[in-house]
Amino acid sequence: MDYGYVRVSAVDQNISRQMIEMLDRKIEKKRIYVDKQSGKDFKRPQYISLIKKLKKGDLLYIKSIDRLGRNYNEILEQWRILTKEKEVDVVVIDMPLLDTRLGKDLMGTFIADIVLQVLSFVAQNERENIKIRQAEGIRAAKLNGVVFGRPIIAAPENFPQVIREWKMGRISANEAAIRCNMSIATFYRRLREYRGK
After folding, report:
1. Which residue has the higher pLDDT, 119 or 4?
2. 32 pairs with which residues across the strands?
3. CB–CB of 47/34 below 8 Å?
4. Are strands 2-8 and 89-92 parallel, antiparallel or unpaired?
5. In the predicted model, what is the mean pLDDT of residues 64-71?
6. CB of 70 closer than 8 Å to CB of 101
7. Crossing angle, helix 159-167 and helix 184-196, to 10 degrees?
8. Is the model more confident about 114 or about 78?
9. How far apart are the C-alpha atoms of 186 and 133, rounded to whole Å?
10. Exposed, middle or buried: residue 171 (CB in 10 Å: 0-12, 13-18, 19+)?
11. What are the catalytic residues?
């Protein structure tokens, strides 16, 4: 059986490029496993399901090695599991040297192992560079005054009066929050802060 594995790092990222590659190879949609999460490890539900499904002699297509994962040691370990334990052939579409159907002799295996190690290193290195660039971007944004997170909703001027009415039982907590134009959780948060003062 032929299978495909597709991965993007986030739910809002597009899988169409990878899906086209799989469908071009006549892989049935029901045998294409898709994960929308980080490649930092292999704790991905569809990947786990795929591994359980694969049997000796099956063929697995992956668009590029970084779609399999971005952790050097774990990529090498998963490759070993796929090719040695499960005895599955793997084709990395973007890297023809990583096609386990070819070159099953010692030289072919040696070359494939070297290419796999280089590409796995590059995948992890890119993941680490992404984290560094992200941290640099956040730092630069903060220096430019960008505030992350939800905006802080300040207590309105009538807050002490609303609290008095709520304490006296004249209004409910929900009504108090509505009068203050905030959610009930924010109302209680501002109440704790108010009492702390």
Report:
1. 4
2. 4
3. no
4. unpaired
5. 83
6. no
7. 100
8. 78
9. 34
10. middle
11. 9
Which residue carries 């949609």 as its tokens?
29
Contact of 190 with 182, CB cutoff 8 Å: yes
Per-residue pLDDT band for 35 (boundaries 50, 70, 90) equals very high
| pTM for this model (two decimals) | 0.62
pLDDT of residue 25: 94
* CA atoms of 24 and 42, how far apart (whole Å): 26
Assigned domain for 56 exists: yes
Instruction: Give the burial string for 87-124 (b: 16+ CB within 10 Å, else e).
Output: ebbbbbbebeebbbeeeeeeeeeeebeebbeebbeebb
List all residues 6 or more positions away from 127 whose beta carbon is below 8 Å from its beta carbon.
Answer: 39, 40, 70, 71
Task: Kindly provide the residue ranges of all beta strands, DSSP E only, lying in the chain, ordered along the sequence.
Answer: 2-8, 32-36, 59-62, 89-92
> Whole domain around residue 51: which residue ranges?
2-127
Residue 60 DSSP SS3: strand
Asked whether the predicted pLDDT for residue 193 surpasses 90, the reply is no
97-140 tens-digit pLDDT:
788 887 776 666 677 777 777 777 776 777 787 788 888 888 88
In a domain, 152, yes or no: no
Does the pLDDT of residue 184 top 80, yes or no?
Answer: yes
How much is the average pLDDT of 160-168? 92
Assess whether 15 and 106 both reside in one domain. yes
The answer to whether residue 145 is domain-embedded is: no
Place of tokens 């300040």: 154
Q: Which tokens hold the place of 25?
A: 């190879």
Residues 6+ away with beta carbon under 8 Å from 54: 3, 60, 82, 86, 88
